[in-house]
Amino acid sequence: MKQVWLNISPVFRRFLMSYLIVLMIPLIAGYVSYRTSIDVAEQSSLKTSIMTLQQSKDLMERRLAEVQGFTKQLAINQDLARLMTSHSDEQNYDVYGLWKMMRDIASYSQTNDFLSNFYIYLRNSHLVLTPSTVYYRPELFYESNHYEGMTFETWKKNFLEKSNLSMVVPQHDYVTKTHQQTVVTFVQALPLNSFDTPLASVVVLIDTKKMSTYLSGITNQYGGWAFVRNHDGETVLSEGITGNDIAKIRNIPSGKPGDISRAADDMLLISIRDELSGWVYTAGVPKSALMINANRIKNITGILTAISLISGLVIGLVLAYRSSAPINNLINSLKKQLGLELGTGIQDYDFIAGNISSLIASNRQLVQDLHNQVPLIRDAFIKRLLVGEFYNGEELAAASAQAGVSIKGEAGYAGLAKINTYGGSDSRESLAESNVARLIVRQSLMEAEPDMLVTDWGQDKLAFLLLRTSKLAPDEALVIQRLQDLAGTLFSHYHMPVQFGMGRPFEALADVGRSFGEAAEALDYAAFTDEGGVIRYEDSSRDASLFYYPIETETRLLNTIKSGDGREAMRILEHIAVRNFQERELSREMTEQLIGELKGTMLKLLDQKAGDDPEFTENLQCRIAQIQPFEGIDRLLGQMGEMIGLYCSMIEEKRNALHHQTVQQVKDYLESAYGDADLTLYHIAKQVGRPEKYVSTVFKESEGEHWFDYLERLRIDKASELLLNRALKIDDIAERVGYNSAHSFRRAFKRVRGISPSMFREAAELGDAR
């Protein structure tokens, strides 16, 4: 036996021993409970009785809180507020408002049986409004619905005209045309802050039989009784005992801490006080019932102990095997990967711990490597922003979040800083000095403007970008002065001559590329004239012998047109015209070359297969060929604008066609898969081969509603057809149309149709009968 035990897996032995030790705890507890079964049973029964009474109290208070919440909902109901404050007489009632209010409040009685009988008194029109009818005089209402022995004047004074704030009236006999019942009345004046004369009163009549069900836990379990008294000592409710018998009881606990239970003859009296309302819940439990439970526990303790021991051993073996098997498989797999023998004497947990520690160390190294890449990602993002590679706000936001760069505004300044001492040699010492110089200048720039974005731009240059959230005119001189001071400081402290090229300020991020290009031109001008400090683009001369059309601008123009943004494309085109025809005086040859470059840009759109329509391509080629160099800048912009408009319209038509096709595919798929309760946006996107975000956005834009709203309507339409078949149960229909439960189906059906499925079926059958 010992040899067999040793051959078992050590992990299995450890788990089994742990479960056996845990198993001994309930066995010892069972033995102790057997020896003290009577005392334990009495205490347990007492606690159970208190708990049952506490639960009854909580349920009662919760249901009354729902009633109070109902009155609060009425207090904020706009329709009721309009009825309370409107001026009406017997000849001019707001009939539609009254009908709408009746319809709205009728649903409450279906969700809460405490609200099955209530009415609202409107003081301004003397109307009594119930879920089923309207009484145009309170006297008419009280003739058929009144308290036994209470006069109309007393009822009107205490219930309708008095400013009652959540008043609960004890049980009282209430008579209607059809029957008589005992009710507890809840009265709430409206508005809730009515301290003098209310505008309306809500009166809820709660059948004591319904309330007594929450006290039946004591009577059903022990054959005792229970009653509730308010803070004035009046009996609000009772179960299993009459008011005369309650008056005979003495030595009732107060329900305060330390005075919850007392013995009285052959009964155990228990009281619980609600500190908020002042109500005292009292129950009487026969002592004989407590002793029966004690004897029962005494008899079954031995049986349960034996069963627990046997079942615990079986369960312990099963759990030990299930818990140890995955660990053993993991250990054997690791040993095979490492080339170790399965029977080696390595401690199992130490072996796993060592490998996990190695894995964690590798993961930390990976995290550190990724963290080290953040500066590179940041520099790449700033470079893309400077050359204008972002064509929409979503792409910019995603890239800035990935790089960890906060975009604080749309306006700002772009510029280049050139360190003139370095960059003339490629030796190791020169490169090291250049790196140090760039680091000093970068740090100085960021100290001068903490919000400035700085990145390397070659060996001897630094590009910088400063964003602002407001207009720039008052700020431009200050920024230039800080750069001038910084240039002087760098030269005086480090003998490092630095030139700053500044483009014109921009008011939108789309103009960053333009401003940065101007900064580069200004810096080139400074190198040619050997000027120092800060050189603004406005102060530099532009060479009229060359036209302005850098490759970055052409790339932005192409990408903007291909994205369908004609307005932005025209803005770029107008910028090109301003730079070449207002800021320069181009020669005839340069003008011809510029127009040729622009025509070539338009032809590139066709070469890149952006338009697949041969007729459209031929038409565009003819328009491009018809452009003449000397027809005037306005004529040129007009012709280019027409072509850009045609191209963007074609892109928009293709996009709309793709959207329509996607929406139709989604509809077809929903039509075939609406019965799948696990249907999600992921499954739909996978079916149509599009991203989830794209599918959701396109469907909403095309149909004017979310896809899940469309799916719900589709399911309810299918369910409506199935409800016409009386042989099908509502639960089966709910499952067929894709709902996990009949409850969720009923809620969805009522939300779409306005009525429950059963009422819909009955209405359909009634229509067929007619």
TrEMBL record:
<keyword id="KW-0812">Transmembrane</keyword>
<keyword id="KW-0805">Transcription regulation</keyword>
<dbReference type="Pfam" id="PF12833">
    <property type="entry name" value="HTH_18"/>
</dbReference>
<keyword id="KW-0804">Transcription</keyword>
<dbReference type="InterPro" id="IPR018062">
    <property type="entry name" value="HTH_AraC-typ_CS"/>
</dbReference>
<dbReference type="InterPro" id="IPR009057">
    <property type="entry name" value="Homeodomain-like_sf"/>
</dbReference>
<protein>
    <recommendedName>
        <fullName>HTH araC/xylS-type domain-containing protein</fullName>
    </recommendedName>
</protein>
<keyword id="KW-0472">Membrane</keyword>
<dbReference type="InterPro" id="IPR020449">
    <property type="entry name" value="Tscrpt_reg_AraC-type_HTH"/>
</dbReference>
<feature type="domain" description="HTH araC/xylS-type">
    <location>
        <begin position="664"/>
        <end position="763"/>
    </location>
</feature>
<keyword id="KW-0238">DNA-binding</keyword>
<dbReference type="InterPro" id="IPR018060">
    <property type="entry name" value="HTH_AraC"/>
</dbReference>
<dbReference type="InterPro" id="IPR041522">
    <property type="entry name" value="CdaR_GGDEF"/>
</dbReference>
<feature type="transmembrane region" description="Helical">
    <location>
        <begin position="15"/>
        <end position="34"/>
    </location>
</feature>
<dbReference type="Pfam" id="PF17853">
    <property type="entry name" value="GGDEF_2"/>
</dbReference>
<keyword id="KW-1133">Transmembrane helix</keyword>
<feature type="transmembrane region" description="Helical">
    <location>
        <begin position="300"/>
        <end position="321"/>
    </location>
</feature>
